[in-house]
Amino acid sequence: MNRSNFRYWLQPKRSLLLVVIATLAMPAPASIHGADATATHIAPIRAERFSADGVTFRSDFPGAKVSSYAHLKTGEFELTIRPENTPINNSAWYAFQVTSERARAIAVRLSYENGTHRYHPQVSRDGRKWTRLDDDAIQRTKDKRGAILQLNVGTDPLWVAGQEMIDRGYLEAWMAGLADLPFVKKSVIGRSIEDRPIHGLQITESDDPGHVVIIGRQHPPEVTGSLGLMAFVDRLVEADGMAAEFRKEFQVTLVPLVNPDGVDRGYWRHNVKGVDLNRDWGSFAQPETRAVRDRVLPLHRPPDHRIYLWLDFHSTHQDVFYTQPDETETFPPLFTRQWLDAFDHRTPGYSVRRVNSLGGKQQTSMQWAHRTFGAASITYEFGDNTDRAEIRQVTRIAAEEMMRLLVPVRQREKAATHRSDENTRKPDAAARDGIRTGDR
Ligand SMILES: [Zn+2]
After folding, report:
1. CA 213 / ligand 1 centre spacing (Å)
2. N or C: which end of the chain has fewer CB within 10 A?
3. Using one digit for the tens of pLDDT, what is the confidence trace for 187-198?
């Protein structure tokens, strides 16, 4: 969508059309509900060596996902990829390593059960630096459900994955770097079903802050959501005056990895109970969502300490903000509209897409945050294939425009609270000073 369409979407008179479009564009509804769901725990395949070809595949590292391997003929292999349970969204994640006893080209067919090929392969020689596999080296299968990759392999491992692997180790290293900053505190706010830590970070230079909450990676394969989240937060911790002033007015509570089990296991969408965590914000049947809820609920003590903004980072087929409609009351009023307008003005050539979210009863984090705090709440989605440098550039700008808008709102709120404090304190102070304030 181009810039003019963005403005068009914001016109209130077009709301009926907006509703129709929003319905079509919304992610698939909740498919899994608490106790009915059982994830299929297929033991991970550690390694499979095809001795006739001297080729070995591995999927025994965190984040790996291949369900079975088959040798089709010399130099040709089939990798079958199954989701953790069904029904499930088509976030058909895969990740594996391959080596060969001699340098050669091989053909690898990716076959999906309960899904189709979605993620263009990224490859790496060291598991850290990733590049997009050349278009020439990939073709879709005739039925369009799978893909065939041409890979150059040798004795050094080649990593192949649906996206560059921003795995738990990567995110934890990034969090540790943040925690070195004097105004960042890191703690374990809870544990996943498989007892992995869920980390929370607190970023502030105020002892009397307003609050912004940022969470991510409820859905394991959504790597571009993590890239966006990291770029956004990295801007908030910079040393310049804008960021410093923001930290003097606000605390950011950050949970970058809500679903560590799913990320480690290479899941497509769910936690190990087979539950979509972003449909659990209501029943709170899962420890991962409960951990975040219990961390953020005490922050909100209106009128002086509110949650002003809730951001939940995700990935989908394009960059899009799922928002509350402007007609919905939020605090701060019309923040979303002002923010996205300001963001749009500063990013000529970049499409700022906004889709109003319907279904206030949906058990997403965004709907819960709005229901519970009245906060501006947004699901911030990045496209699977959005250029990575563009993600960093535009997300920094989004962070700057957020700071620019929120700081004066907080300052006004504090001034108003202070005034009302003085009004209520006066009689006490007068009594303490022994001044008669009664009838004369
Ligand atoms: Zn998602």
Report:
1. 17
2. C
3. 999 999 999 999
Query: Which of 2.60.40.3120, 3.50.50.60, 3.40.50.1970, 2.60.40.10 is the CATH number of 47-161?
Result: 2.60.40.3120
Q: Is the dihedral of CA 97, 101, 107, 108 positive or negative?
A: negative
431 by DSSP, 3-state: which?
Answer: helix
pLDDT at position 44: 57
pTM: 0.87
Distance 298 CA to ligand 1 centre (A): 26
State which H helix or E strand residue 411 sits in. helix 388-432
Ligand 1 centroid–CA 222 distance in Å is 6
Per cent of the chain over pLDDT 70 is 85
Q: How far apart are CA 347 and CA 338, in angstroms?
A: 14
Cα 404 to ligand 1 centre (Å): 27
Of 85, 54, 132, 65, the residue nearest 272 (C-alpha) = 85
- Measured between alpha carbons, how far is residue 361 from residues 30, 54, 87, 282, 410 in Å? 12, 55, 21, 9, 29
Domain 3-30+167-414 matching CATH 3.40.630.10: the answer reads: yes
- Diameter over CA atoms, the chain: 106
The full set of domain ranges for the chain reads 3-30+167-414, 47-161
Residue 350 Cα to ligand 1 midpoint, Å, equals: 22
C-alpha 226/C-alpha 313 separation (Å) is 7
Q: Which two tokens stand for residue 197?
A: 């830590």
Distance CA 238, CA 172 (A): 19
Q: Give distance in angstroms: CA of 397 to centre of ligand 1.
A: 22
Distance 314 CA to ligand 1 centre (A): 4
Which tens digits make up the pLDDT trace of 141-150?
999 999 999 9
Q: How much distance in Å is there from the Cα of 321 to the middle of ligand 1?
A: 12
Half-sphere exposure of 432 (CA within 13 A, CB side): 5
Give me ligand 1 centre to Cα 261, in Å.
15
- Among 26-30, 81-85, 257-261, 361-365, the minimum mean pLDDT is found in 26-30
Gap from CA of 219 to ligand 1 centroid (Å): 5
CA of 316 from ligand 1 middle (Å) equals 7
